[in-house]
Amino acid sequence: MLFSLGEESIFMFGNGHKATVDTAPPAGGLNGPTGPALTSDAPLTIDPDRTDWLLPQDWVRFGAVPVQGGLIALSDPEMITRLAVALTGKRGWRAILAVPTAIEALHHQHFGAALARRAETRVPLWLSSRGFGQRISRDRLQMPLLTLSGIMFSVAAPSKAAVALTAWCIFTLLCVTLLKLSCVTASLISRRKTVQPTPLAEDELPILSIMVPLHREAQIAERLVRRMTRLDYPADKRDILFVTEENDTKTREALDRAQPLPEGFRIIVVPDGHPKTKPRALNYALDFCRGSIVGVYDAEDAPEADQLRKVAAAFAAAPPEVVCLQGRLDYYNPRDNWLSRCFTTEYAAWFRLILPGLSALRLAVPLGGTTLFVRRHALEELGAWDAHNVTEDADLGIRLARRGWRTELIPTTTMEEANCRTWPWIKQRSRWIKGYMVTYLVHMRNPFRLVRELGLWQFIGFQVFFVASISQFLLAPLIWSFWLLPFGVNHPVIGILGHEGTIALIVLFLTCEVVNLLTSFVALTGQHLRHLVPWAIFMPLYFPLATPAAFKAAYELALRPFYWDKTAHGISGSED
């Protein structure tokens, strides 16, 4: 079919992997009238001389690729006008329609390496943690040098060091407790004011792209497909991408066993490269997303069936500055053992009180790694995820805040598998803490610029959240020793604070524990969580597990900053 588009002539004929023969003029078309048909049996073979007409990511965005014969193959006829504008000044091309799988295969085959390199460096260098990869760098040496300085100070002036360390312990303990109390209060107040947005009609729903990064997840891949299938969203507006690594053949074989995948489901294969991290995979797959809203799930996730509809409605009702929505996470295996019960309690407080409180207080929200949804334009403007940061979610939340955008929490839940074994829990937590350390150091490269972009209020919140929290993990052994004070044990801190100061410290310490306990109780008020209330009293025995994780994180920060200590899934016998 021959159509006129500006100065170019466009031939259209249906095809799969080939430009098929059609000797009779087909009926209909983009603009109605038909014209002379082209005859060709040639397979779609890329034309390397014209690939530089656009950047690789732009060919992917248009769903187009230049092929032999002076043709450009497209998968979506509605993209032709936009493509013609992008190719203004380029002459002698015609367009054909091809099935999307054929186009996408050519994209991966010919542009995959370039897109993978781009995925590794999408975030500007000054905002990325990839500088930590240098053996000798300011980023990488900050924490070890700070630790060494502290040790030298302790040796040179032990009494002064003891005073300083005690003061810092007390100060950070007070800061963390005040932040937690403020978040809980703000969360409870904002919860009363929350109005559920009106659900959107079918024709109003936007295309939603959901990326599910998978690495060595063969054990649960088929289960994951079933869970994603339960999502109640129109098939033509549901874009589910299972993102696998090139060398992870077992996971892809497991996905193949679930074939044929439902409409709107795709498998994206990320070319091999470094670092092999979740954010690098997300960055690569982002170019292939169709939606104006992009979400992320983890491999073990079981989201509520109506979650995508709630997300669409919440975005439609939100002001423009709200570009990110974070859903709640919960665990479907809390009854496995003591550790899973405590982990579930911690998550309940985090996603039902702390994060909503941070949002209500207009502070930067460190995102969770799953059940987060972001407007596509915001992701593109920010450079998406930092491929080298092992807590890319928290980093993204801070970068959103620096741009003046906001994150809100939505009342929809995704069920996950709680880590119920001690050493895997410590390894997972060490990755999180290492990522928090990296995120803090990256954003503090230029503190004056940070305070300008965040504003003083958010800057203070950033300091309390990261510095005070990390300090509490690392200084926990000293804090634990404060437990001896109420029992009259002669503690060295008595000589520093005196009798009245020691009494005040005991009151502060007990108050902090009461706040922690009440936070857990409030978080467990949900019907399905009430059975965990008796276990909340054991949380003081659970949190110390984060201390060995913090020291492991500090060690890896100096020697293995990009190492991703992967969490194994499918361990629990429980399902959703």
TrEMBL record:
A Pfam family this chain is assigned to: Glyco_tranf_2_3
Localization of this protein: Membrane
Domain of life per record: Bacteria
Membrane topology: Multi-pass membrane protein
Keyword Cell cycle: no
GO cellular component assignments: membrane
Protein name: Glycosyltransferase
Transmembrane domains' residue ranges: 165-189, 454-483, 503-525, 532-551
First-listed, main subcellular location of the protein, grouped into a coarse class: membrane
A GO MF label: glycosyltransferase activity
Keywords: Glycosyltransferase, Membrane, Transferase, Transmembrane, Transmembrane helix
InterPro entries per UniProt: Glycosyltr_2/OpgH_subfam, Nucleotide-diphossugar_trans
